[in-house]
Target: Trehalose-6-phosphate synthase
Amino acid sequence: MDIGKSSFVVVANRLPVDRVTPRDGPTSWRRSPGGLVTALAPVMRSFDGAWVGWTGSRDDAPAPFSTDEMDLIAVPLSAEEIALYYEGFSNATLWPLYHDVIVAPEYHREWWEAYRRVNERFARAAADVADHGAIVFVQDYQLQLVPNILRQLRPDLKIGFFLHIPFPPGELFAQLPWRRQILEGLLGADLVGFQREGAADNFIGLAERYTDATAGDRQVVTADGRTVLARSFPISIDVSEITQLVSDPDVQARSDRIRSEVGSPKHILLGVDRLDYTKGIGHRLKAFDELLAGADVTPDEAVMVQVATPSRERVEAYQTLRDDIELQVGRMNGEYGTIGQPAVHYLHSSYERAELVSLLRAADVMVVTPLRDGMNLVAKEYVAARTDLGGALVLSEFAGAADELSDGAFLVNPHDIDGLKRALLAAMRLDAAEATQRMKLLRERVLGNDITRWAQNFLDTLRAV
Ligand code: ADQ
Model:
Protein backbone atom coordinates (compact mmCIF):
# COMPACT_ATOMS: atom_id res chain seq x y z
CA MET A 1 0.00 0.00 0.00
CA ASP A 2 1.33 3.45 -0.85
CA ILE A 3 1.63 5.51 2.28
CA GLY A 4 2.36 9.10 1.34
CA LYS A 5 3.79 11.91 3.42
CA SER A 6 1.60 13.38 6.13
CA SER A 7 1.16 16.95 7.25
CA PHE A 8 0.07 15.82 10.74
CA VAL A 9 1.93 13.06 12.57
CA VAL A 10 1.27 11.65 16.03
CA VAL A 11 4.09 9.76 17.73
CA ALA A 12 3.14 7.62 20.74
CA ASN A 13 4.51 4.51 22.41
CA ARG A 14 1.44 2.54 21.27
CA LEU A 15 -0.47 2.59 18.02
CA PRO A 16 -4.16 3.41 18.57
CA VAL A 17 -5.26 0.00 17.23
CA ASP A 18 -5.31 -3.58 18.48
CA ARG A 19 -4.75 -6.56 16.24
CA VAL A 20 -7.75 -8.85 15.79
CA THR A 21 -6.82 -12.36 14.68
CA PRO A 22 -9.87 -14.49 13.94
CA ARG A 23 -9.38 -18.27 13.73
CA ASP A 24 -10.42 -18.30 10.08
CA GLY A 25 -9.73 -15.18 8.10
CA PRO A 26 -7.15 -12.46 7.81
CA THR A 27 -5.78 -10.28 10.59
CA SER A 28 -7.47 -6.94 10.98
CA TRP A 29 -7.06 -3.96 13.27
CA ARG A 30 -9.62 -2.47 15.62
CA ARG A 31 -9.37 1.03 17.01
CA SER A 32 -8.43 0.84 20.69
CA PRO A 33 -10.68 2.57 23.19
CA GLY A 34 -9.30 5.86 24.45
CA GLY A 35 -9.96 9.54 24.38
CA LEU A 36 -6.73 10.57 22.70
CA VAL A 37 -7.38 8.76 19.45
CA THR A 38 -11.02 9.89 19.50
CA ALA A 39 -9.92 13.50 19.87
CA LEU A 40 -7.28 13.29 17.20
CA ALA A 41 -9.26 11.23 14.66
CA PRO A 42 -11.02 14.25 13.07
CA VAL A 43 -7.69 16.10 12.82
CA MET A 44 -6.17 12.97 11.33
CA ARG A 45 -8.93 12.75 8.74
CA SER A 46 -8.74 16.34 7.61
CA PHE A 47 -4.93 16.52 7.49
CA ASP A 48 -4.10 13.16 5.98
CA GLY A 49 -2.55 12.15 9.28
CA ALA A 50 -0.20 9.38 10.30
CA TRP A 51 0.35 7.70 13.68
CA VAL A 52 3.74 6.26 14.57
CA GLY A 53 3.82 3.69 17.40
CA TRP A 54 4.45 0.17 18.63
CA THR A 55 1.84 -2.58 18.10
CA GLY A 56 2.32 -3.99 21.60
CA SER A 57 3.80 -7.30 20.42
CA ARG A 58 7.49 -8.12 20.25
CA ASP A 59 9.35 -7.95 16.92
CA ASP A 60 6.15 -6.86 15.23
CA ALA A 61 6.71 -4.78 12.12
CA PRO A 62 3.71 -4.91 9.81
CA ALA A 63 4.12 -2.76 6.69
CA PRO A 64 2.52 0.69 7.00
CA PHE A 65 -1.25 0.43 6.59
CA SER A 66 -4.27 2.73 6.54
CA THR A 67 -7.61 2.94 8.28
CA ASP A 68 -10.38 5.40 7.35
CA GLU A 69 -8.82 8.01 9.50
CA MET A 70 -5.06 7.67 9.30
CA ASP A 71 -1.94 5.88 8.17
CA LEU A 72 -0.34 3.66 10.78
CA ILE A 73 3.42 3.23 10.97
CA ALA A 74 4.59 0.44 13.26
CA VAL A 75 7.86 0.78 15.16
CA PRO A 76 9.19 -2.67 16.11
CA LEU A 77 10.59 -3.49 19.56
CA SER A 78 12.56 -6.62 20.38
CA ALA A 79 11.90 -8.64 23.54
CA GLU A 80 15.05 -7.13 25.03
CA GLU A 81 13.95 -3.59 24.17
CA ILE A 82 10.56 -4.19 25.75
CA ALA A 83 12.34 -5.27 28.93
CA LEU A 84 14.89 -2.41 28.96
CA TYR A 85 13.16 0.56 27.32
CA TYR A 86 9.52 -0.09 28.25
CA GLU A 87 9.36 -2.12 31.45
CA GLY A 88 12.73 -0.80 32.60
CA PHE A 89 13.49 2.86 31.88
CA SER A 90 9.91 3.96 31.17
CA ASN A 91 8.08 2.08 33.90
CA ALA A 92 10.67 1.39 36.59
CA THR A 93 12.79 4.57 36.27
CA LEU A 94 10.70 7.44 34.90
CA TRP A 95 7.25 6.40 36.14
CA PRO A 96 8.20 6.18 39.84
CA LEU A 97 10.54 9.20 39.62
CA TYR A 98 7.79 11.36 38.11
CA HIS A 99 5.26 10.09 40.69
CA ASP A 100 6.97 11.36 43.84
CA VAL A 101 9.23 8.28 44.19
CA ILE A 102 6.34 6.38 45.85
CA VAL A 103 8.43 3.38 44.81
CA ALA A 104 12.20 3.82 44.48
CA PRO A 105 13.19 4.45 40.83
CA GLU A 106 15.96 2.22 39.49
CA TYR A 107 18.79 3.74 37.49
CA HIS A 108 20.50 1.35 35.07
CA ARG A 109 22.77 2.44 32.24
CA GLU A 110 21.61 -0.39 29.94
CA TRP A 111 18.02 0.76 30.40
CA TRP A 112 19.00 4.31 29.47
CA GLU A 113 20.93 3.12 26.39
CA ALA A 114 17.86 1.19 25.19
CA TYR A 115 15.61 4.21 25.85
CA ARG A 116 17.90 6.40 23.76
CA ARG A 117 18.08 3.87 20.95
CA VAL A 118 14.33 3.29 20.83
CA ASN A 119 13.58 7.03 20.96
CA GLU A 120 15.87 7.46 17.97
CA ARG A 121 13.95 4.76 16.08
CA PHE A 122 10.62 6.50 16.77
CA ALA A 123 12.07 9.85 15.70
CA ARG A 124 13.40 8.42 12.43
CA ALA A 125 10.06 6.80 11.65
CA ALA A 126 8.33 10.15 12.22
CA ALA A 127 10.93 12.01 10.12
CA ASP A 128 10.33 9.58 7.25
CA VAL A 129 6.58 10.07 7.13
CA ALA A 130 6.30 13.80 7.88
CA ASP A 131 5.68 16.11 4.96
CA HIS A 132 7.67 19.36 4.63
CA GLY A 133 6.61 21.74 7.42
CA ALA A 134 4.32 19.13 9.02
CA ILE A 135 3.04 19.25 12.58
CA VAL A 136 4.35 16.40 14.73
CA PHE A 137 2.65 15.72 18.07
CA VAL A 138 4.73 13.52 20.40
CA GLN A 139 3.12 11.81 23.40
CA ASP A 140 4.32 11.09 26.88
CA TYR A 141 7.22 10.00 29.07
CA GLN A 142 8.35 7.05 26.95
CA LEU A 143 9.40 9.44 24.15
CA GLN A 144 10.96 12.49 25.77
CA LEU A 145 14.05 12.39 23.55
CA VAL A 146 12.06 12.32 20.31
CA PRO A 147 11.51 16.11 19.98
CA ASN A 148 15.21 16.95 19.90
CA ILE A 149 16.27 14.03 17.68
CA LEU A 150 13.49 14.96 15.29
CA ARG A 151 14.51 18.62 15.29
CA GLN A 152 18.07 17.63 14.27
CA LEU A 153 16.75 15.42 11.47
CA ARG A 154 14.02 17.77 10.30
CA PRO A 155 14.37 21.44 11.28
CA ASP A 156 11.39 22.28 9.04
CA LEU A 157 8.86 20.56 11.34
CA LYS A 158 6.64 22.09 13.98
CA ILE A 159 6.95 19.84 17.02
CA GLY A 160 4.59 19.57 20.01
CA PHE A 161 5.04 17.33 23.03
CA PHE A 162 2.49 16.45 25.72
CA LEU A 163 3.35 14.78 29.02
CA HIS A 164 0.39 12.79 30.40
CA ILE A 165 1.98 12.23 33.80
CA PRO A 166 3.29 14.73 36.36
CA PHE A 167 6.61 16.53 35.86
CA PRO A 168 8.42 16.34 39.19
CA PRO A 169 9.96 19.12 41.27
CA GLY A 170 13.72 19.68 41.11
CA GLU A 171 14.44 17.90 44.40
CA LEU A 172 13.30 14.64 42.77
CA PHE A 173 14.19 15.19 39.11
CA ALA A 174 17.78 15.96 40.14
CA GLN A 175 18.26 12.26 40.97
CA LEU A 176 18.11 11.28 37.32
CA PRO A 177 21.63 10.61 35.99
CA TRP A 178 20.41 11.66 32.52
CA ARG A 179 18.48 14.76 33.61
CA ARG A 180 20.23 17.08 31.15
CA GLN A 181 19.62 14.77 28.18
CA ILE A 182 15.91 14.44 29.04
CA LEU A 183 15.49 18.20 29.34
CA GLU A 184 17.36 18.78 26.08
CA GLY A 185 15.20 16.12 24.47
CA LEU A 186 12.04 18.01 25.43
CA LEU A 187 13.53 21.36 24.43
CA GLY A 188 13.58 20.11 20.84
CA ALA A 189 9.83 20.84 20.78
CA ASP A 190 8.22 24.20 19.99
CA LEU A 191 5.53 23.59 22.59
CA VAL A 192 5.76 21.32 25.65
CA GLY A 193 2.37 20.67 27.26
CA PHE A 194 1.69 19.50 30.81
CA GLN A 195 -1.42 18.58 32.81
CA ARG A 196 -0.89 21.19 35.52
CA GLU A 197 0.57 24.67 35.76
CA GLY A 198 3.00 23.49 38.46
CA ALA A 199 4.49 20.87 36.16
CA ALA A 200 5.20 23.50 33.50
CA ASP A 201 6.89 25.65 36.18
CA ASN A 202 9.01 22.68 37.29
CA PHE A 203 10.12 22.12 33.71
CA ILE A 204 11.02 25.76 33.09
CA GLY A 205 13.06 25.96 36.31
CA LEU A 206 14.87 22.71 35.62
CA ALA A 207 15.65 23.61 32.01
CA GLU A 208 17.36 26.75 33.26
CA ARG A 209 19.24 24.90 35.99
CA TYR A 210 20.54 21.95 33.96
CA THR A 211 20.79 23.15 30.35
CA ASP A 212 22.11 26.29 28.65
CA ALA A 213 18.59 27.59 28.19
CA THR A 214 17.14 30.71 29.82
CA ALA A 215 13.82 30.68 31.65
CA GLY A 216 11.12 33.15 30.72
CA ASP A 217 7.43 33.65 31.38
CA ARG A 218 5.80 30.29 30.51
CA GLN A 219 8.62 29.70 28.04
CA VAL A 220 12.28 28.80 27.73
CA VAL A 221 14.82 30.25 25.27
CA THR A 222 17.41 27.70 24.16
CA ALA A 223 21.11 28.46 23.71
CA ASP A 224 20.60 28.69 19.93
CA GLY A 225 17.84 31.26 20.38
CA ARG A 226 14.74 29.13 19.84
CA THR A 227 11.70 29.80 22.01
CA VAL A 228 10.03 26.77 23.56
CA LEU A 229 6.60 27.36 25.10
CA ALA A 230 5.75 25.40 28.27
CA ARG A 231 2.04 25.50 29.12
CA SER A 232 -0.60 23.45 30.88
CA PHE A 233 -3.39 21.78 28.90
CA PRO A 234 -5.47 19.73 31.35
CA ILE A 235 -6.60 16.68 29.41
CA SER A 236 -10.19 15.48 29.46
CA ILE A 237 -12.53 12.78 28.24
CA ASP A 238 -14.87 12.09 25.34
CA VAL A 239 -18.01 13.34 27.07
CA SER A 240 -20.32 12.40 24.19
CA GLU A 241 -19.22 8.75 24.31
CA ILE A 242 -20.20 8.53 27.99
CA THR A 243 -23.45 10.45 27.50
CA GLN A 244 -24.47 8.07 24.72
CA LEU A 245 -23.72 5.00 26.81
CA VAL A 246 -25.60 6.38 29.80
CA SER A 247 -28.74 6.90 27.73
CA ASP A 248 -28.63 3.29 26.49
CA PRO A 249 -31.45 1.32 28.20
CA ASP A 250 -29.17 -1.74 28.45
CA VAL A 251 -26.63 0.26 30.41
CA GLN A 252 -29.35 1.57 32.72
CA ALA A 253 -30.70 -1.94 33.27
CA ARG A 254 -27.21 -3.29 33.90
CA SER A 255 -26.59 -0.53 36.39
CA ASP A 256 -29.73 -1.49 38.36
CA ARG A 257 -28.70 -5.14 38.24
CA ILE A 258 -25.24 -4.32 39.63
CA ARG A 259 -26.88 -2.61 42.60
CA SER A 260 -29.00 -5.61 43.39
CA GLU A 261 -26.16 -8.07 42.77
CA VAL A 262 -24.06 -6.41 45.47
CA GLY A 263 -27.03 -6.68 47.88
CA SER A 264 -28.77 -3.33 47.31
CA PRO A 265 -26.84 -1.56 50.07
CA LYS A 266 -27.49 2.03 51.00
CA HIS A 267 -24.05 3.06 49.75
CA ILE A 268 -21.91 1.65 46.97
CA LEU A 269 -18.36 3.00 47.06
CA LEU A 270 -16.50 2.51 43.80
CA GLY A 271 -12.84 2.58 42.79
CA VAL A 272 -11.72 2.05 39.18
CA ASP A 273 -8.00 2.13 38.54
CA ARG A 274 -5.17 0.44 36.79
CA LEU A 275 -3.57 -1.69 39.50
CA ASP A 276 -0.79 0.85 40.07
CA TYR A 277 0.95 1.97 43.27
CA THR A 278 0.27 5.60 42.37
CA LYS A 279 -3.49 5.16 42.66
CA GLY A 280 -3.74 4.91 46.46
CA ILE A 281 -5.91 1.79 46.41
CA GLY A 282 -4.45 0.55 49.70
CA HIS A 283 -5.15 3.89 51.40
CA ARG A 284 -8.82 3.85 50.43
CA LEU A 285 -9.21 0.22 51.52
CA LYS A 286 -7.64 1.08 54.86
CA ALA A 287 -10.03 3.99 55.38
CA PHE A 288 -13.04 1.81 54.53
CA ASP A 289 -11.67 -0.96 56.78
CA GLU A 290 -11.46 1.46 59.71
CA LEU A 291 -14.98 2.76 59.08
CA LEU A 292 -16.27 -0.81 59.28
CA ALA A 293 -14.09 -1.63 62.30
CA GLY A 294 -15.34 1.45 64.15
CA ALA A 295 -18.96 0.68 63.15
CA ASP A 296 -19.28 4.09 61.49
CA VAL A 297 -20.95 2.06 58.76
CA THR A 298 -22.03 -1.58 58.76
CA PRO A 299 -21.31 -4.08 55.98
CA ASP A 300 -25.07 -4.09 55.24
CA GLU A 301 -25.09 -0.36 54.68
CA ALA A 302 -21.97 0.06 52.57
CA VAL A 303 -19.98 -2.06 50.16
CA MET A 304 -16.94 -1.18 48.17
CA VAL A 305 -16.43 -2.27 44.58
CA GLN A 306 -12.82 -2.02 43.48
CA VAL A 307 -12.01 -2.60 39.84
CA ALA A 308 -8.26 -3.05 39.45
CA THR A 309 -7.21 -3.33 35.82
CA PRO A 310 -4.21 -5.63 35.33
CA SER A 311 -1.20 -3.47 34.51
CA ARG A 312 2.57 -3.85 33.91
CA GLU A 313 2.50 -7.33 35.33
CA ARG A 314 6.13 -8.05 34.50
CA VAL A 315 7.43 -5.15 36.60
CA GLU A 316 8.31 -6.27 40.12
CA ALA A 317 6.74 -3.38 42.04
CA TYR A 318 3.41 -4.21 40.40
CA GLN A 319 3.61 -7.86 41.45
CA THR A 320 4.28 -6.81 45.05
CA LEU A 321 1.44 -4.29 44.93
CA ARG A 322 -0.99 -6.94 43.70
CA ASP A 323 -0.05 -9.24 46.56
CA ASP A 324 -0.46 -6.44 49.10
CA ILE A 325 -3.86 -5.32 47.83
CA GLU A 326 -5.20 -8.85 47.55
CA LEU A 327 -4.05 -9.63 51.09
CA GLN A 328 -5.79 -6.51 52.35
CA VAL A 329 -9.04 -7.31 50.49
CA GLY A 330 -8.91 -10.93 51.71
CA ARG A 331 -8.48 -9.81 55.30
CA MET A 332 -11.35 -7.34 55.09
CA ASN A 333 -13.68 -9.89 53.57
CA GLY A 334 -12.65 -12.44 56.20
CA GLU A 335 -13.39 -9.91 58.92
CA TYR A 336 -16.59 -8.23 57.70
CA GLY A 337 -18.00 -10.45 54.95
CA THR A 338 -20.72 -13.04 55.21
CA ILE A 339 -21.70 -15.79 52.80
CA GLY A 340 -22.64 -14.16 49.51
CA GLN A 341 -21.89 -10.71 50.89
CA PRO A 342 -18.25 -9.58 50.82
CA ALA A 343 -17.34 -6.14 52.16
CA VAL A 344 -15.15 -5.47 49.13
CA HIS A 345 -15.96 -6.73 45.64
CA TYR A 346 -12.52 -6.88 44.07
CA LEU A 347 -12.33 -7.33 40.30
CA HIS A 348 -8.90 -7.79 38.71
CA SER A 349 -10.05 -7.38 35.15
CA SER A 350 -10.48 -5.14 32.15
CA TYR A 351 -14.00 -4.16 31.06
CA GLU A 352 -15.94 -2.96 28.05
CA ARG A 353 -16.88 0.71 28.17
CA ALA A 354 -20.59 -0.10 28.62
CA GLU A 355 -19.89 -2.19 31.72
CA LEU A 356 -17.65 0.51 33.13
CA VAL A 357 -20.28 3.19 32.63
CA SER A 358 -22.91 0.92 34.23
CA LEU A 359 -20.65 0.69 37.28
CA LEU A 360 -20.16 4.47 37.38
CA ARG A 361 -23.93 4.93 37.32
CA ALA A 362 -24.43 2.38 40.10
CA ALA A 363 -21.94 4.05 42.47
CA ASP A 364 -23.06 6.45 45.20
CA VAL A 365 -19.54 7.50 46.05
CA MET A 366 -16.70 7.45 43.54
CA VAL A 367 -13.43 7.15 45.42
CA VAL A 368 -10.41 8.50 43.52
CA THR A 369 -7.44 8.68 45.88
CA PRO A 370 -4.16 8.67 43.95
CA LEU A 371 -0.98 9.61 45.80
CA ARG A 372 0.03 11.32 42.57
CA ASP A 373 -1.71 11.34 39.18
CA GLY A 374 -1.18 13.45 36.06
CA MET A 375 -4.91 14.04 35.63
CA ASN A 376 -7.14 10.99 36.39
CA LEU A 377 -9.76 10.47 33.74
CA VAL A 378 -11.90 8.15 35.86
CA ALA A 379 -12.93 11.11 38.06
CA LYS A 380 -14.08 12.99 34.95
CA GLU A 381 -15.80 9.93 33.50
CA TYR A 382 -17.79 9.54 36.72
CA VAL A 383 -18.96 13.14 36.51
CA ALA A 384 -19.88 12.76 32.83
CA ALA A 385 -21.86 9.61 33.62
CA ARG A 386 -23.99 11.34 36.28
CA THR A 387 -26.49 12.97 33.93
CA ASP A 388 -28.96 12.25 36.77
CA LEU A 389 -26.96 14.68 38.98
CA GLY A 390 -26.64 11.90 41.57
CA GLY A 391 -23.58 10.53 43.33
CA ALA A 392 -20.59 12.12 45.04
CA LEU A 393 -16.91 12.32 44.19
CA VAL A 394 -14.13 11.91 46.74
CA LEU A 395 -10.97 13.14 45.02
CA SER A 396 -7.31 13.31 45.98
CA GLU A 397 -5.74 16.75 45.90
CA PHE A 398 -2.73 15.04 44.28
CA ALA A 399 -4.63 14.24 41.07
CA GLY A 400 -4.39 16.83 38.30
CA ALA A 401 -8.20 16.71 38.15
CA ALA A 402 -8.32 18.44 41.56
CA ASP A 403 -7.40 21.76 39.89
CA GLU A 404 -10.70 21.77 38.00
CA LEU A 405 -12.97 19.76 40.30
CA SER A 406 -12.24 21.25 43.72
CA ASP A 407 -15.62 23.02 43.96
CA GLY A 408 -17.90 20.02 43.74
CA ALA A 409 -15.70 17.17 44.96
CA PHE A 410 -14.71 16.17 48.49
CA LEU A 411 -10.98 16.85 48.24
CA VAL A 412 -8.74 14.63 50.36
CA ASN A 413 -5.12 14.03 51.23
CA PRO A 414 -5.08 10.24 50.89
CA HIS A 415 -2.19 9.93 53.35
CA ASP A 416 -4.46 11.39 56.04
CA ILE A 417 -6.57 8.32 56.79
CA ASP A 418 -8.76 10.13 59.35
CA GLY A 419 -9.42 12.88 56.83
CA LEU A 420 -10.21 10.30 54.18
CA LYS A 421 -12.64 8.54 56.55
CA ARG A 422 -14.36 11.86 57.28
CA ALA A 423 -14.68 12.59 53.57
CA LEU A 424 -16.11 9.14 52.82
CA LEU A 425 -18.66 9.54 55.61
CA ALA A 426 -19.58 13.05 54.50
CA ALA A 427 -20.05 11.81 50.92
CA MET A 428 -22.24 8.92 52.12
CA ARG A 429 -24.34 11.21 54.32
CA LEU A 430 -24.70 13.97 51.76
CA ASP A 431 -28.29 15.20 51.42
CA ALA A 432 -29.87 15.08 48.00
CA ALA A 433 -30.01 18.85 47.47
CA GLU A 434 -26.32 19.38 48.21
CA ALA A 435 -25.38 16.34 46.13
CA THR A 436 -27.19 17.85 43.15
CA GLN A 437 -25.56 21.20 43.74
CA ARG A 438 -22.09 19.67 43.85
CA MET A 439 -22.66 17.49 40.81
CA LYS A 440 -23.85 20.51 38.82
CA LEU A 441 -20.59 22.32 39.61
CA LEU A 442 -18.57 19.26 38.63
CA ARG A 443 -20.45 18.79 35.39
CA GLU A 444 -20.00 22.42 34.39
CA ARG A 445 -16.25 21.94 34.57
CA VAL A 446 -16.07 18.59 32.81
CA LEU A 447 -18.57 19.37 30.06
CA GLY A 448 -16.93 22.74 29.45
CA ASN A 449 -13.56 21.20 28.60
CA ASP A 450 -13.77 17.86 26.87
CA ILE A 451 -11.06 16.03 24.95
CA THR A 452 -11.88 17.69 21.63
CA ARG A 453 -11.43 21.10 23.19
CA TRP A 454 -8.13 19.94 24.72
CA ALA A 455 -6.77 18.78 21.35
CA GLN A 456 -7.93 22.00 19.71
CA ASN A 457 -6.30 24.20 22.37
CA PHE A 458 -3.01 22.35 22.13
CA LEU A 459 -2.87 22.29 18.34
CA ASP A 460 -4.00 25.93 17.99
CA THR A 461 -1.23 26.99 20.37
CA LEU A 462 1.31 24.89 18.48
CA ARG A 463 0.25 26.27 15.09
CA ALA A 464 0.52 29.82 16.38
CA VAL A 465 4.14 29.34 17.57
P1 ADQ B 1 -3.83 6.26 33.63
O1 ADQ B 1 -2.81 6.21 34.70
O2 ADQ B 1 -4.07 5.00 32.92
O3 ADQ B 1 -3.52 7.42 32.57
P2 ADQ B 1 -6.59 7.41 34.03
O4 ADQ B 1 -6.46 8.84 33.70
O5 ADQ B 1 -7.49 7.14 35.16
O6 ADQ B 1 -5.19 6.74 34.40
O7 ADQ B 1 -7.12 6.65 32.76
C1 ADQ B 1 -7.47 5.30 32.81
C2 ADQ B 1 -8.47 4.97 31.70
O8 ADQ B 1 -8.63 3.55 31.65
C3 ADQ B 1 -9.84 5.55 31.97
O9 ADQ B 1 -10.39 5.99 30.77
C4 ADQ B 1 -10.62 4.36 32.54
O10 ADQ B 1 -12.00 4.39 32.28
C5 ADQ B 1 -9.98 3.19 31.84
N1 ADQ B 1 -10.06 1.97 32.67
C6 ADQ B 1 -9.67 1.85 33.96
N2 ADQ B 1 -9.93 0.62 34.42
C7 ADQ B 1 -10.49 -0.06 33.40
C8 ADQ B 1 -10.98 -1.39 33.26
N3 ADQ B 1 -10.94 -2.30 34.24
N4 ADQ B 1 -11.48 -1.76 32.06
C9 ADQ B 1 -11.49 -0.86 31.05
N5 ADQ B 1 -11.05 0.38 31.13
C10 ADQ B 1 -10.55 0.80 32.29
C11 ADQ B 1 -2.43 8.33 32.33
C12 ADQ B 1 -2.06 9.22 33.53
C13 ADQ B 1 -3.31 9.95 33.99
C14 ADQ B 1 -3.91 10.76 32.84
C15 ADQ B 1 -4.09 9.90 31.60
C16 ADQ B 1 -4.48 10.73 30.39
O11 ADQ B 1 -1.51 8.45 34.58
O12 ADQ B 1 -2.99 10.82 35.08
O13 ADQ B 1 -5.19 11.25 33.25
O14 ADQ B 1 -2.88 9.21 31.29
O15 ADQ B 1 -3.60 11.77 30.17
Notes: The chain has two domains: 6-235+452-464, 239-448. Residues 109-129 form the longest helix (21 residues).
